[in-house]
Write a structure and sequence with these properties.
The complex is a heterodimer of chains A (about 325) and B (about 260).
Chain A (H helix, E strand, L loop, with lengths): L14 H20 L4 H31 L7 H8 L1 E6 L11 E8 L2 E8 L5 H6 L7 H17 L3 E7 L6 H5 L2 H14 L4 E10 H5 L6 E5 L3 E3 L3 H8 L5 H9 L3 H6 L5 E3 L10 H19 L4 H13 L4 E3 L9
Parallel strand pairs in A: 3-4, 4-5, 5-6, 5-7, 6-8
Antiparallel strand pairs in A: 1-2, 2-3
Chain B lengths: L2 H6 L11 H6 L15 H8 L6 E3 L3 E3 L11 H12 L5 E8 L2 E8 L10 H17 L3 E7 L8 H19 L4 E9 L1 H8 L4 E4 L10 H8 L10 H6 L5 E2 L2 H16 L1
Parallel strand pairs in B: 4-5, 5-6, 6-7, 7-8
Antiparallel strand pairs in B: 1-3, 3-4
């Protein structure tokens, strides 16, 4: 194995393994010249290097999904809104200080039922992307979302949210306007709602900025979307201090739809057309509509109190831990 | 107590020499410049609650490395390190206490345990103490000191934000008063969850209280942040805090608030 082959993983990650690799080569040479063999040591080192190769493979595979989730040809919130909901009317402003375009909110009909639709909007072209701040919201965006959700709650309209954000916008203005408070209040508002809340992760689920809209009775995720507590780049910067660490971080964070389903964080994976949603956006929109109709149908006969309880129960049972020295997992 | 500080006998803020005994008596606050230094969970409980009144709960909960998370060390080894460093099982201690005779539920975080980061155990302990408050009709007081969500637990740490806010929602429905003390630092996922939905938010002076940290903001706006970025004083001006209270006055303020809520 050539050291130069190791491209995808930063060299400080498996310092020990690389040292093992050198040791193994050394041992082989000693064996060759002296006739003394170190079978056990060689086996152990070979195993470590195998593990390393496995990690590298997984990291590359996970990174492909991360790239797909960020693909600019992937259908975005406005694509879904205009093709799934009839009579959609967009609502603007947080009624306090500003209109934040990074979140699109409004009312529309799906299969004859009025629903509120709220989603992160990354923008279609370069101008829109800058105007919509690449889907990164400020407190005003979360407050607009809260306002529309409370409106829907008052009139008994189910709520559908579409999550697609790299994260909350980390500007000075955001902090001064109470970013932490806006996100927390957004979470609180969603727990107070007495209407069905259907959440779909359609692209990037960037941490708190995504969670603020993701407290649902039913949480679905597109196959190639991601959902994470921190971006792979952010994680790599803190933990590995090496840009190539992003692929490793993505693997370590287990941010793919399959991992999330197995951890019980999401309820369903919506499989995408072959090659990803960007390969057949028209079909993707149709597929999502079908699942939204099914999800709404699931909760249409549940009363407000039970919807609140189900949502609270759902999130309050999340976590993996053990009691004292025994391996008692209390998980979902 | 912070051993490093005692060894050097110098304040982190003003760099003047201070007598370690004086520092301790002053509740880990610099007698020269008033800098509020780190204080551990056990010490905080001691100086806040009536002597012998604190009875701990849920001390047997432990974190597990369910993601098999390995950055430069495994999560398991980091947990062991944290236990040795802080003397605690996890980043929060919860229990029942009295403050000037008023009974209350109390949760205190400790920054020395993996930077006070919130993982499954912190989330679960907050749920346990919130449920306890509701069942026993006790107010809830939480001292927060945290760098945010625990990366090594991935998405589960993010879910703890939702979990804790859901618990606070039920507290509110049951008319249970909830007071949160912001101590240095309080950032990230904890700021954007159970801290800012409290009924009363009190901060110590000089605290860093923000969502995104100064370096992240600087990277975003491509220039330096003001020197008082995220400070308690700046937060008070921006309407994010009810009050700033010095450490020596916290017990008194809490007792007075508990008295008002008792009505």
């Amino acid at each position: 194995m050539d050291l130069n082959e190791i491209k995808e993983i930063p060299k400080n990650y498996f310092k020990e393994t690389l040292r093992s690799f050198f040791k193994l080569e050394k041992l082989k040479r000693i064996s060759h010249f002296s006739g003394v063999h170190f079978d056990d040591a060689e086996k152990e080192l070979a195993k470590k290097i195998e593990n390393y190769k496995k990690v590298e493979k997984e990291a590359i595979k996970t990174w492909k999904i991360v790239e797909l989730s960020r693909n600019e040809n992937r259908p975005h919130t406005p694509d879904y809104i205009s093709n799934i909901f009839e009579d959609f009317i967009e609502l603007s402003g947080d009624r306090q200080t500003a209109e934040d375009k990074s979140i699109t909110a409004g009312l529309g009909k799906i299969n004859g039922t009025t629903v509120a639709v709220i989603g992160h909007n990354k923008g279609k072209d370069i101008n829109e992307r800058v105007e919509f701040n690449f889907g990164m919201s400020m407190p005003q965006g979360y407050r607009k979302s809260q306002r529309v959700m409370q409106l829907a709650g008052r009139f008994g309209f189910p709520i559908i949210t579409l999550i697609d954000t790299p994260g909350a916008y980390a500007a000075l203005e955001s902090e001064d306007s109470g970013q932490a408070s806006a996100i927390a209040k957004s979470l609180l508002t969603m727990f107070e709602l007495e209407v069905p809340v259907i959440v779909v992760l359609i692209g990037e689920g960037g941490s708190g900025g995504a969670l603020a809209l993701a407290i649902g009775n039913y949480v679905m995720m597109l196959e190639n979307s991601t959902y994470s507590v921190i971006s792979p780049e952010g994680c790599a910067a803190i933990l590995w201090k090496d840009p190539s660490g992003s692929k490793l971080a993505a693997r370590a964070l287990k941010l793919t739809s399959r991992s999330l389903l197995s951890m019980g964080v999401i309820d369903r994976i919506i499989f995408e057309p072959l090659g990803g949603a960007q390969a057949d956006p028209v079909r993707m929109v149709r597929i999502l509509k079908r699942y939204l109709v099914l999800a709404l149908d699931k909760f249409k006969n549940t009363d407000g109190k039970h919807l609140k309880e189900q949502r609270a129960q759902k999130f309050e049972t999340m976590g993996f831990l053990a009691a004292s020295s025994q391996d008692l997992f209390s998980d979902k | 107590m912070d051993k490093k500080l005692l060894e050097k006998n110098k304040c982190k803020n003003c760099n003047k020499e201070i007598d370690p005994d004086e520092f301790l008596i002053n509740l880990n606050v610099c007698p020269k410049c008033g800098y509020h230094d780190y204080i551990g969970a056990r010490e905080r409980i001691q100086i806040t609650s009536d002597e012998g009144s604190f009875s701990e709960m849920a001390q047997d909960l432990n974190s597990v490395d369910f993601l098999n998370f390995y950055d430069l060390k495994s999560y398991s080894s980091r947990l062991t390190e944290a236990r040795l460093k802080s003397g605690l099982n996890e980043a929060i201690v919860v229990g029942d206490a009295r403050i000037n005779g008023f009974r209350t539920s109390l949760g205190v975080m400790d920054f020395s345990y993996m930077g006070g980061s919130m993982g499954s155990v912190v989330g679960e302990k907050i749920k346990i103490i919130a449920d306890y408050s509701i069942a026993n009709k006790l107010p809830l007081i939480i001292f927060c000191a945290s760098g945010g969500a625990r990366m090594q637990e991935g998405i589960m740490s993010l879910m703890q934000m939702a979990k804790t806010v859901s618990c606070i929602n039920r507290l509110r429905e049951n008319k249970i008063p909830y007071i949160c003390l912001v101590t240095n630092p309080t950032t990230g996922g904890v700021s954007a969850s159970f801290v800012t939905v409290a009924d009363i938010i009190i901060s110590e002076p000089g605290t860093l209280f923000c969502f995104a940290g100064p370096r992240v903001v600087e990277q975003t706006i491509k220039k330096a942040v003001p020197p008082d970025f995220g400070s308690a004083e700046r937060n008070l001006r921006n309407g994010q805090l009810d009050m700033i209270v010095e450490r020596k006055d916290i017990k008194d303020i809490l007792a007075r608030l508990l008295k008002l809520f008792k009505n």
